[in-house]
Design brief:
Length: 650
């Protein structure tokens, strides 16, 4: 029996499964998501694959549980313990405006109410302990926390990244008191979550971990029990950093799952890019609810130090992904001034676009494509049947008030969605010193191949890659993602003062700390978070045992020059070391599988005998197994030996 690795990606509209056999053969399935019970959607996709439980080597899962908790504010009640005098950090943030020019716009409220932030009488300064945490101070905090009946407790004390003794003392006291009262409650310390400088980011990230952990633990525990009861393996879970963790480990690192789903797509796109010899690319995953934009740098997904998720700063390593509310289900509407808008409201899986015939009546981007013949009527994967008359009826609600034809309204709605996505692509690339014209565009998801040419034209891009299995590439990326464990440790030091043996010992110690057994074959990798002395942001540079401070500084200067175009005549310092243990990815053989072209604007038949050297010149539409490729006017598409398509200006 062939062993398979499976990836299951739960989206807002569809749940996708990709199963990759040991010989590289790929089987894919797609079912409608169940918004009220994501675990049932995962099981439905596995059942639809008709693969026996014993055939699975593992099942990797991309989850949106944390993102949804942060968006909907349905996480646990958190009580935060913070050094006295710093209890307003979550309110003050970085003292920047939510919008520079819109004075009515405000940041989202913190995850912890002001009444649930407890001051702790202690103080550590760079020179040492200024005010020790004594028994009376601990007793005050314990009493205040117990009175508030928290679901989780987050402890963030000043400079605990360098001196965690006070956090540990308080954690021990609170754990004992809560257990004695029969309360099952996690007490989480910032030095375990983010042992790095910057008090606000450390506090916000620790609170996010505490806020999400109970729900993540329940969800993964339920999913694990339901899978194992049916003879399937316990799930591995995708992290924001582009690797997978065992479900038990993932449940204790909830904040690291904030971008679990989108990271899978960029991982899959990077595998395709490497197979084609492409080192730099922008990626766009267009689903039913959103479009997720990423960046591939030197053949690998770009990993950054973190950022906001639903307005909550989470300063943990993550694959760069920027999501915008523009997808196939984005609803078209007219604002008060009569201007056409696309999203952010989405038809989702229920009721879905009008063309699905599931009760939706409002026009969506998908309906616009159906009206223009880009998406063929009839049966599609995932149990969807497209009804062109319903799509046209919905689009008439836009065309009538605009005073234009249905077709013109559909074109305008697609152009509006393209403009939103193009802005996100520019932000991801230009803000990092990358000219979009110098890299390829890898477009996937159900809508990626439909919008690729329009987006490339807006950005002046000349190369488009449509991967094989484009409609389920995020699931493919999940199955390919290796096991990966991440760790951070504080290391504030100028590069000129770094001693070779000291650095080597630190790197090896951190790698050993992340290992769960001596027999593991995971590969150790390290990065130093570096900056000019006094600078306000950092860049990660790869390092290894045996590197000197001068070598680290030289790599930083090279990377800073490439990113910003300049360097400063100033010393270079490290602030932390990031360590990753990475396993081997599951083998894959990308091969052609496109067939059954749609019967719409001039359609092209594609089957297994299709000649690889044949080129299609647009405008044309090719129906793929799980998506639709639209070759725009002035573009040509060539089928690739790896599967998928390469598009260039004709």
């Amino acid at each position: 029996m062939k062993r398979v690795a499976a990836g299951v990606d739960v989206g807002g509209t569809f749940t996708d499964l990709a199963a990759i056999a040991e010989d590289g053969e790929i089987l894919t399935t797609k079912v409608l998501s169940i918004p009220t019970d994501r675990a049932t959607g995962v099981l439905a996709a596995i059942y639809a694959s008709k693969i026996s439980g014993s055939a699975f080597a593992f099942i990797a899962h991309g989850t949106t549980v944390v993102t949804n908790l942060l968006l909907e504010r349905t996480g646990a009640r958190v009580v935060a313990c913070v050094t006295s005098g710093f209890t307003d950090l979550l309110e003050l943030r970085r003292q920047e405006r939510a919008s520079l020019y819109d004075l009515t716009k405000h940041h989202p409220a913190p995850l912890v109410t002001r009444d649930d932030v407890i001051p702790v009488r202690e103080r550590v300064v760079p020179e040492g302990v200024l005010h020790a945490l004594d028994d009376s101070g601990i007793a005050e905090v314990v009493q205040a926390v117990m009175a508030r009946r928290p679901e989780t407790v987050a402890i963030t004390l000043l400079h605990a990244y360098a001196s965690p003794a006070h956090e540990t003392l308080l954690q021990q006291a609170l754990t004992a008191a809560l257990a004695g009262a029969g309360v099952n409650c996690d007490v989480i310390c910032s030095h375990d979550v983010l042992p790095e400088i910057r008090e606000y980011e450390r506090l916000a990230t620790t609170v996010a971990e505490a806020y999400a952990r109970p729900a993540v633990r329940r969800y993964l525990g339920d999913l694990k029990s339901r899978l194992t009861a049916q003879g399937y393996p316990a799930p591995r879970v995708m992290t924001s950093a582009g690797g997978t963790l065992a479900s038990n480990d993932a449940a204790e690192h909830a904040a690291s799952l904030a971008l679990s789903g989108p990271a899978g797509g960029v991982t899959g796109a990077a595998a395709i890019a490497r197979a084609l010899g492409i080192r730099g690319a922008l990626t766009i995953d267009i689903g039913g609810t959103s479009a997720d934009v990423g960046l591939i740098d030197d053949g690998e997904p770009l990993i950054e130090r973190g950022g906001d998720v639903a307005g909550v700063p989470i300063a943990l390593p993550r694959v760069l992904v920027e999501a915008v509310a523009a997808g196939g289900g984005s609803i078209g509407w007219l604002d008060a001034g009569g201007a056409l808008r696309a999203g952010p409201e989405s038809a989702g899986a229920v009721p879905g676009p009008a063309a699905y015939g599931r009760g939706g009546v409002r026009p969506t981007v998908t309906d616009a494509h159906v009206v223009l013949g880009h998406v063929a009527a009839g049966e599609w994967s995932g149990g969807v049947t497209i009804d062109a008359s319903l799509a046209r009826r919905a689009m008439e609600t836009l065309s009538a008030p605009l005073g234009v034809t249905v077709e013109r309204a559909a074109e305008a709605l697609i152009a509006t969605a393209n403009a939103t996505m193009a802005r996100a692509l520019r932000r991801v690339s230009v803000e990092r010193g990358i000219d979009p014209r110098s890299v390829a565009l890898v477009a996937f998801g159900g809508g990626g191949p439909l919008h690729a040419c329009g987006l490339a034209e807006r950005l002046g891009m000349l190369t488009i890659v449509i991967p094989p299995h484009a409609g389920v590439l995020s699931a493919v990326g999940l199955a390919l993602a290796p096991e990966r464990r991440e760790g951070l440790t504080s290391f504030v030091m100028e590069t000129g003062a770094i001693h070779l043996d000291t650095l080597k010992a630190l790197l090896e110690r951190e790698a050993q700390r992340l290992r769960t057994s001596d027999g593991e074959t995971l590969t150790s990798r390290w990065w130093a978070r570096t900056r000019f002395v006094g600078q306000g942001y950092e860049l990660d540079v790869a390092i290894a045992p045996g590197d000197t401070g001068e070598m680290i500084a030289a790599r930083f200067l090279e990377r800073h020059k490439a990113r910003t175009g300049f360097v400063l005549d100033r010393g270079v310092e490290c602030i932390s070391i990031r360590t990753a243990l990475v396993g081997d990815p599951w083998p894959v053989r990308f091969a052609r599988g496109q067939r059954n072209a749609s019967r719409s604007e001039p359609a092209v038949d594609v089957d297994d005998s299709f000649a690889l050297e044949r080129t299609i010149t647009g405008p044309a539409v090719v129906r793929l197994p799980d998506a639709t490729l639209r070759v725009g006017a002035g573009w040509s598409a060539r089928a690739l030996p790896t599967g998928g398509w390469l598009m260039e200006p004709a």
